[in-house]
Amino acid sequence: MKVSGVDLGAIAEEFGTPTYIIDFKRVRKNYMRLDKALNCPHVIAYAYKANYEPQLVRMLALMGSGATVPSAYGVMLAMWAGVPPEKVVLVGPSPSRQDLEEAVMYKALISVESESEVEALGRIGKARVMIRVNTGVGAGAHPSLITGGQKTKFGLPPSRALSLARFLGSTMEVEGFHTHIGSQILSAEPFKKAVELLTKLARDLGKVNVIDMGGGLGIPYLNEKKFPLEEYSQVVCRASENIGALLVIESGRYIVGDAGYLLTRVNYVKEVGKEKWLLIDAGMNDFLRPALYNAKHRITVDKEKPKEKYLVAGPICESADLFGEYDLPKLGEGDLVVIRDVGAYGFSMASRYNLRPLPAVVAVDNGKYNLLRERENFGRAIFG
Question: What's the pLDDT band for 140 if we cut at 50, 70, 90?
Fold first, then answer.
């Protein structure tokens, strides 16, 4: 199998498995598609939590991308990548003092989510802020991906958000309002409802410089329809133009999701009763989404029929370490298996659970490849 002119089998031979691949050409294409579709003044503040590989975020910064960061380290990485302060947004429900200090020092825009957080921020200094609003709209492909609506830790109800914005007007630089309704959304409808409420809040407040619609733009992992980008653009751009504010989009998955591949090999094939298990060397420590969100990803192999039904699972001592049931060509020990669309929330959620080293990461781009991150060795993984 080739990606951007590079044979993935050759990469697996050179760097071993499991190994993540990032197709930089695909990332650029996705970013430019999104940038072109937004026909209004905007900043695409790429969500670093989706994939924070340094060379990746630097490439996006050179293309004009901003950065949505969840921590002080994210602010530092954005600085290193060359993202200007006015394009950096700190977002999260419980930032530490260090997170806030770093953001204030760099003059990044801070999304505040509670009165208590505002008190903590006030002890640090004057900051550029926006108020995160829980619009009552929640959407996403899994309950854990829904960040709006009832029983969520994110944001404030509209009336309290407005009151807080008015209160802070004399002590902070209040830029506007922020919302994030969920992740892996494949319809523009939820955004329409959220936009209506933010538009009303902006008019009630008066002068608003920024309207941040968060992220959530989904990608088709299996047989889903593509995200309606043009319809979405019309919705959010119309709102920002009506308000007279800069539009900020915190997209991550849409830019990098389908640009990632996880190379893994078959360790064993095991038959128990009527079930056939394909046991691979990548597990939930390498790629958590299937265990955490019941997500299912496409799997590609360099073989053809006849196909057999396999339960694909990893080496971790957990029953949740299961990628799902697949119809695949007959496979044996050592065969290469490629898990698709893992560019977002793949390596960024990887861990050393079960005493396994973090995988290698390789970039491919127009027929060439280079190692971005070596596979961890014993010393670093265990002793730091």
Answer: low
Long-range contacts of 218-223 (CB under 8 A, 24+ apart): 218/141, 218/183, 218/184, 218/185, 218/186, 218/253, 218/254, 219/184, 219/253, 219/254, 219/257, 219/258, 219/341, 219/344, 220/186, 221/295, 221/296, 221/297, 221/298, 221/341, 222/296, 222/297, 222/298
Which tens digits make up the pLDDT trace of 46-73?
A: 999 999 999 999 999 999 999 999 999 9
Answer for the pair 112, 135: CB distance below 8 angstroms, yes or no: no
> Domain residues for 182?
52-251
Q: Give the C-alpha separation, 375 to 184, whole Å.
A: 29
Choosing from 233, 251, 269, the residue where a domain stops is: 251
Question: Quick one: 367 and 233 in the same domain?
Answer: no
> Cα(138)–Cα(357) distance, rounded to whole angstroms?
36
What local confidence, expressed as pLDDT, does residue 141 receive? 58
Say whether 237 is catalytic: no
Catalytic-labelled residue, pool 306, 317, 355, 384: 317
User: How many residues in total does the chain contain?
Assistant: 384
- Tell me if 28 is assigned to some domain: no
Rounded to two decimals, the pTM is 0.94
Report the pLDDT value the prediction gives residue 147, as an integer from 0 to 100. Answer: 62
Number of domains in the chain: 2
Instruction: Tell me the residue type at 218.
Output: G
The pLDDT score that the predictor gives to residue 136 is 77
